[in-house]
Fold:
Amino acid sequence: MRPNSKALKHRSLQDTEKEFGGSLGAVCIPIFLPLTVLFLICVSQSPEASVLQWPPPLPSTGQLWEPLAPVLLLGWIALHALLYMVPLGKVSEGLVLRDGTRLKYPINGFHGLCISGVVLMLLLGLGAPLGYLFELLLPLAVCAIAVSFLFSIYLYIRSFWAPSHTLALGGNTGNPLYDFFIGRELNPRIGNFDLKYFCELRPGLIGWVLINFGMLMKEVELRGSPSLAMILVNGFQLLYVADALWNEEAVLTTMDIVHDGFGFMLVFGDLAWVPFTYGLQAAFLVMHPQALSSLGASTIVVLNGIGYYIFRKSNSQKNQFRRDPTHPSVARLETIATATGKRLLVSGWWGLVRHPNYLGDLLMALAWSLPCGKTYSLDQSGGLSVSQIRVFIHRAAGMAKNNEIILQI
Structure:
């Protein structure tokens, strides 16, 4: 029997259904995920580069802190906050909220990426040692983790002054630990500055590109020129980021924006997890150069192209359906009704596999990892290398959420 739609519409904000292991997950994940980020960076820079090596590569206190790191991180965030407010590009409306209103968002993330590129080229021309980002990787990650905790505390405290209709259904359970993790407020704003939307596609995502470029420049310092493997990794991941920002408007229909509160889960994912784990291949290649044949490189390029095509086409179809199900490109597609009264696509790309966007995502993640080789061990003892686990990291970060991945658009 179909649930009463009015009852669903007027259900209490005190939603008792908990995700990610409930209270236990809300305690464990904020502890273990930051440690995982630091561990993986250490592994990628260690001689063996194996997650199974024992004892694991543990950094010294001096390796975790560098006074320049917080200056660079906060300066980077401030730069993109400024670019966010620059009146470039159009302004788009989000989906209808519970109170019947729509929020407005600046669609200028791609402009921010381009301006960031110009700034990088200017710094490069002035002789800035961009390769030093390799040495700063751990201190920057530590600072990003600290900022994630502090920012999440601010978001949790300010949510108690927010009107009830602006709270996220899933993040208002009354359990402080869980609500801190999931996020109480759906769209926290300072004036017209949307904090969640800003973090979703700006400092962390573009920061990922910056870190990759820093790894490339470190390789140039060490070997005189970037390797083909490093060029492929940088090129593939730049395409992914540029695509996300070029199609920035599509993020307004994702679960991150529409459904999820803005708490530690998304803050940490945006500011720490994405820039410091999604680019592990580049960090790995600095210390562990790999030789690629022309045939091997061509095959990897084709694989990434196929993954990108599936990823972009399926996501575009989904976004068009969410925005306007009567549009000619999606009007004839088959759908099924859900318990909440919404409809899901079951034909077109979404009739081929359950999540074609995830399929494309995974194919691209594999293409990003293949330039790193199969294994790397100085004593040839084997073991899982950081390049092998990269695909699984990408999948875990993306598919832990049932409906959307962090970067999905």
Q: What stands out?
A: Strands lie at 90-93, 104-107, 189-190, 193-194, 335-337, 343-345.
